[in-house]
């Protein structure tokens, strides 16, 4: 740990930008009240501390240069661009937060000499510097007010709020930082035995009573033994897909089919990847996925039409480097063109990815762009299911802000059809906490999908067997929650994972224990395979998981039939028909 004598309140936050951690939920305890410090910078740097990873990265001073109010403000000068934004921090530490209380942090900022993005992050004030939430804002030449609603994940004074700006050189000015508690996130009460009763809920919400009638081609009833076997869940069990070449490519795709019945593009359909050159979208690349999906009966979610991140060089995308009007028109063109082109081939989209945490496009074009994107998409393909997608909802504390955002859209009549909660965990699975947040989001009445599940296995130093049991716990939590309509892993192979170690398979494609625990639940525990008898009318009934079934009569003749949620019974099965 590097500590400099000249500065007060120093600490190093060890987390990667964009990672989503959450502390284990804890019972609120009495902690001494510690007020947030003075944000006017008129009284020196009392309570503030400055920490650069290395001294050459940047410097800090109280400046009298055009303060927002009074005669002083804070200035961070970034001399050298760092690898991570958090490598230079202005910190406020040790103040009281109470679990589920919502705090409005507001501050004014401006920049000179090409100052770019300022990020505010809340992290634990001591090792392991657990990440609690963050927001990025674009720094403008004139003073501008910014706000961040922070919901406390626990009751503590061991907290730090940090301004981070090391990824772009320039002078960053900050003034009038204020911290006000307003409201509380009131999550629904979840009974202590909720998780223990998961089987009961699964029995109720994931299964139906099916009746069928088996006839031959002349309509004559078949009476006798019939076996029914689930071959495909109606529920979406999926993974993100990243097709490449190489020796293991075929095996990779085979394993995707072994485990999952749906997919999502990892990067291929992100606008900045998909249309690297204006007017030349990589449709051939996308068709590789869609043809494979169509051949194997794997629907692939359209992730993501718009994502405001400025990382990965996306801030230099051809549409963003021109003026605002051009950017707006290009967004509309992208959405309209692609929903028209893929009508019927892609039936579900993440229209806007991470609207709460990546506001760069809103800073330029206004927040009503969110509504516009959904309206353009709906107009181009009225049949497509349109999702919003965000992180730190079930794996963090941002459910209140997210729900408010979606509720506002619904009130304005915006066609948003589903809620995506990513699910990148850096803490152990807490079913009660996750269920409370899912129920809270579910109160809006929209379906919810866990769109990007993984865990920071290496960061948390979890063994293979703990990974396996944690993944199983998460699957059970999601599958037994009535608001959830799908569950997608964000990759299953360590060699193609943004969090190597989080995969079900190691980099050589050897299965880890988690591959078995996940397969076992989806394909062995939660499955239906039974033998039933049809009566003299050819009729029979059984209870099973919703999905596609293979029906086999004596003599080995097989037929496929679907028993879906809300479908009408009975299914008449003509055993003479083709599969
Ligand atoms: Ca001031």
Shape: elongated
Most strands sheet: 8 strands, parallel, barrel
By CATH, the architecture of the domain at 48-184 is named: Sandwich
CATH superfamily of the domain at 48-184: Galactose-binding domain-like
Question: Key features?
Answer:
alpha/beta, disordered N terminus, eight-stranded parallel beta barrel, elongated, 26 strands, 31% strand, Jelly Rolls, 579 residues, five-stranded antiparallel β-sheet, TIM Barrel, binds calcium ion
Structure description:
By secondary structure, the chain is an alpha/beta fold. The chain is built from eleven helices and 26 strands. The strands form five sheets. It has an eight-stranded parallel barrel with strand order 13-14-15-16-17-18-20-21, surrounded by five helices. Strand 15, helix 5 and strand 16 (348-353) form a beta-alpha-beta unit. Helix 5 (324-341) packs parallel to helix 7 and helix 10 (464-479) runs parallel beside helix 11. The radius of gyration is 26 Å and the shape is elongated. The model is unreliable at 1-26 (pLDDT under 50). Bound molecules: calcium ion. Calcium ion binds next to loops. Calcium ion (CA) is lined by residues 40-42, 67, 69-70, 72-73, 175.
